[in-house]
Hints:
Elements: H1 5-22, H2 63-70, H3 75-86, H4 95-101
Helix pairs in contact: 3-4
Amino acid sequence: AEPAPAAETEAAEEAEDKKAMYEGDQVVTGKRSRATVARLVEVEVKAKPAAAAGTGARLDENEAVAALLADPKNKETMLDLHQFVFKQKGKKGTQRKALCEWR
């Protein structure tokens, strides 16, 4: 009763694998090899649609509106108006100027 040839070959392969794992120098010297990293793929950024230039008069051409924008008491109203018109808060120093130029 001889053992099956498949069992012999599996045992021989396992023995070779164990030998291969421990062969060679166990202490690594020098710089380690680094794997290259696949960088991010470029994504097309959709450009914001350009704001259409209005055809009406500027806000500061209307005397009543210009007076309201210039009055420091109406700062909160002006900031709310800027948020409503431009859908963003805006920079601190350019809010009044942007509203005055808006058509």
